[in-house]
Amino acid sequence: MNKYGTIKVIENRYKIDGVHHFMDPNMPIRRADGKLCGVTNPRSMNYIHSYGGEAVFFENLSQGRLFGSKCENPDCEFKGTVYMPFRIHCPDCLGKNTVYDLTETAKKSSKVHTFMITERTGAFNTLKKPIKFINVEFEGVSTILMGYLSVGEPEIGMRVVPIFRKKNPTYTITDLSWVPEGTSDSKLPEGFSF
């Protein structure tokens, strides 16, 4: 709840109450049991984006954990494939993937696959310019995750480690960023930690 109203999930439906065109951005929406199920993204009208099965990914970013997913279907030709970014279903067999904690893997084996530095971004982007977008590869993961580098200059092959916005998280992908391996706590952006 904030000063303008409330959004609750009751009986699997959103119940909206209050003045919503003044809603705070990136306000978490939680089920009655406390689990994250969405986030506000206000504009001139109220738009509620539901994370559905991906809520576990965004919830854990706010707690300093990075989750991917893994196909464990014994009948899938690609059983054991690990995906990051998080995928609810295997793209090969369409079976439901298992949530898979990649936090330690990311800390030990992440490196820059490619990168791009830009001054121009999409509408409503809140990242500090220039933005250093990086594509991050992980050992044992079949896909590559796009993110951004908060400290230093990117280089292909450079070892990076994840940092997380645990203080005042937005429950969006910007709660995850990357820094070069060996970066000290004092160099991290405000609100972020390892």
Number of strands: 14
End-to-end distance: 29 Å
* Strand percent estimate: 25-35%
Major β-sheet annotation = 3 strands, antiparallel
Describe the structure.
This protein has 194 residues and is mostly beta strands. The chain has 2 domains: 5-50, no CATH class; 104-193, OB fold (Dihydrolipoamide Acetyltransferase, E2P) (Beta Barrel). It is 7% helix and 34% strand. The chain contains 2 helices and 14 strands. It has helices at 55-61, 103-109; strands at 5-10, 13-18, 28-30, 36-40, 48-50, 67-70, 82-83, 98-101, 111-118, 131-137, 145-148, 160-165, 176-180, 192-193. It has a 3-stranded antiparallel beta sheet with strand order 3-4-5, with helices on one face. The chain has a 3-stranded antiparallel beta sheet with strand order 7-6-8. Strands 9-10-11 form a 3-stranded antiparallel beta sheet, with no helix packed on it. Strand 10 and strand 11 (145-148) form a beta hairpin. The longest helix is centred in the first third of the chain and has 7 residues, at 55-61. 25% of the residues are buried.
